[in-house]
Write a structure and sequence with these properties.
Number of strands: 11
Number of helices: 7
Radius of gyration: 18 Å
Strand content: 25-35%
Shape: globular
Structural class: alpha+beta
Oligomer: single chain
Distance between the termini: 28 Å
Strand order of the largest sheet: 10-5-9-6-2-3-1-4-11
Length: 231
């Protein structure tokens, strides 16, 4: 396994230019950004007279040493640890499709591509990825919050099954979806996923399916860090 990781950052949409400039100043040339939304309930936003919270999800590939340095710099230079600013976290990369892919994703960084023989037996955090029918993110997040989740990020997506009539438990695979990303301490993952499946699972109108990914480090979300005992 390469000593590489995806450094993921979720910030308010109006922080996109400072974030891009930050990465460029730190010799990161290849970035991918996706507009997304926060998960404050529509009822709450309506009561407060606010629009849906617009966010930006950006990821870059680097090695674990550089990722730790960048995360510290985001706290000191961008104030990532201030409430409501954003969060950064790393996900290990298992493999890459050759040197050309490595050069593309790490352009400008001049990294030493080292191999890692050992990875932690357990990771302190998890990223829950829940895919639900469009319009049911509130149902999913209500279920997740009932088990201790603090919040999430919504990306709009669409299934790509070539058979447009394909179904899974009554859910059309090719319909528009909402993909929710919920960052949590590892000890909270199972209760949150269980609550979502019980209250918004495949037998509900949300038809939620899920998986989780290991997260090695987090910056900017103190509540999750405290739950993992890492603050």
């Amino acid at each position: 396994m390469h000593d590489l990781c995806l450094l993921n950052v979720i910030v308010r949409r109006d922080h996109d230019e400072p974030l891009i400039a930050f990465f460029q100043e730190h010799d990161v040339e290849t970035m991918t950004s996706i507009p997304c939304e926060g998960t404050a309930s529509k009822k709450l936003l309506s009561l407060l007279g606010l629009e849906e919270t617009e966010k930006l999800y950006m990821y870059v590939m680097t090695n674990r040493t550089v990722a730790r340095r960048l995360m510290k710099a985001m706290v000191s230079e961008l104030g990532l640890d201030m409430p409501g600013t954003g969060v950064a976290f790393t996900i290990p990369v298992a493999s890459l499709a050759g040197a050309s892919s490595l050069n593309h994703f790490t352009s400008g960084q001049n990294l030493n591509s080292e191999e890692v023989n050992e990875m932690p037996n357990a990771f302190p955090y998890e990223l829950i990825v829940a895919i639900a029918n469009r319009g049911y993110s509130d149902m999913v997040m209500d279920a997740a919050r009932s088990a201790g989740a603090m919040g999430g990020t919504v990306l709009h997506a669409k299934g790509t099954n070539p058979d447009s009539n394909a179904n899974f438990f009554g859910m059309s695979i090719a319909d528009e979806k909402e993909m929710l990303m919920i960052l949590t301490a590892a000890c909270q993952k199972a209760p949150i996923m269980r609550a979502i499946m019980e209250k918004a699972g495949v037998e509900s109108p949300a038809h939620t399916v899920m998986f989780s990914l290991p997260v090695e480090s987090v910056a900017g979300l103190r509540s999750v860090m405290e739950a993992a005992g890492q603050a």
